[in-house]
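Duplicate of earlier report; Prephenate dehydrogenase input re-posted below.
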Amino acid sequence: MSAFGMHGPGQLTGPVVILGTGLLGASIGLGLRGRDVEVYLSDPSPTNQAVAVDIGAGLPLSALAERGHDDGAVRLVVVASPPDVTAVVVESALTTYPNAVVVDIASVKAGILAALTESAARSALDLSRYVGTHPMAGREKSGPVAARGELFTSMPWVLCPGPEASPAAQETARTLALDLGAIVYEFTPVEHDEAVALVSHLPQVMSSLLASRLQEVGEHSLSLAGNGLRDTTRIAASDPKLWVQILGANAGPMVEILHGVRDDLNRLINTLEDPEAPGARLDLAQLMSEGNAGQARIPGKHGGQARSYAWLTVLVDDRPGQIAHLLTEIGEIGVNLEDMRLDHSSGQNVGMVELSVLPSRHDALVEELSKRGWKVLQ
Ligand SMILES: NC(=O)c1ccc[n+]([C@@H]2O[C@H](COP(=O)([O-])OP(=O)(O)OC[C@H]3O[C@@H](n4cnc5c(N)ncnc54)[C@H](O)[C@@H]3O)[C@@H](O)[C@H]2O)c1
Ligand SMILES: O=C(O)C(=O)C[C@]1(C(=O)O)C=C[C@@H](O)C=C1
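Output:
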């Protein structure tokens, strides 16, 4: 596995065809249109296709011929369909667009390459033009309405070329990812599936398991929900149809990891059943510090080393223009924001803007914002 740095934007040339215009397909279309690449969109759902066109992710595929192109002119096809139909859609794209590189972006990779390899053994399928890829960027929402052109900025994008993928096809796939601002990694399909089982699929399962505990709880208890619960359950809102396919296609690596989680849960249950037993407190401390050690290993933005940021909270009146005003003032103060979260206290006309900055800039920002009349909580 290896990682590649960024190059200047806008090197990909069209026409590009995107098959599947949901969250990911429409986000890729928006990102490419932002770089003036010619993009054509197709989706079996007329509504998803029309919405993607309306938000500016590209033109309907029917416009390809109207613009004087035949199928042979298409340079790149991005397959952004659900995982279970991806191999079939890739196969048909390789046939329909004889000169195009075809990439897919499905969340699991080994099964798709295996299905295509099997088809190629029976037919004249040209897998030198196919590269499996996976942008490690998404949202808990689906469909083109949730699409964002900047979704991929500074996020990992994995290339998983099969043995037949030509160097030119791999270069096109890499250029797509880099043009959309991603950091490119190269993994084998099997390495990829094992890695995402831990860093993507386990978090989804844990979040869903946790949130499912909330189904029966009374509203009285739920009214105490704070950020701990929100932070750990955001992705429990993800699309079940997509995740049934992802988990089903990566069952082997998941089962191995879940056995380890089960062992840890058993250990915790045993400890809590007798919290006064000798060594019990030490066990709990060890569990927490093992979590600390794992969390500290998660890389920060831009694929760099893990880094901790300092947070501050600014209270803003809940009226239009306040957040824009705050951000303008932070720009004037000259501090770079690393992250931002918004929250509202129920029943109060006040919003809370949580800002994260480099620790070395924290105190100066608190002081400057306070001087300018903002209410800052640290
Ligand atoms: N959601 C994420 O966070 C995320 C992140 C990275 C990769 N992915 C992968 O991207 C792909 C798309 O996911 P999404 O989140 O955009 O889902 P989505 O449900 O938002 O969009 C999927 C789209 O594919 C269309 N579609 C269905 N059958 C099709 C077919 N045969 N041909 C072409 N299009 C078809 C659907 O109508 C829909 O518009 C999936 O393979 C998923 O694994 C998702
Ligand atoms: O941020 C989110 O909503 C995601 O969960 C995105 C996420 C992930 O990072 O695990 C989920 C699945 C995809 O295959 C890729 C990205």
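The pocket of prephenic acid (ligand 2) is lined by residues 107, 136-140, 200, 235 (CB under 6 Å).

Merging into the original ticket.
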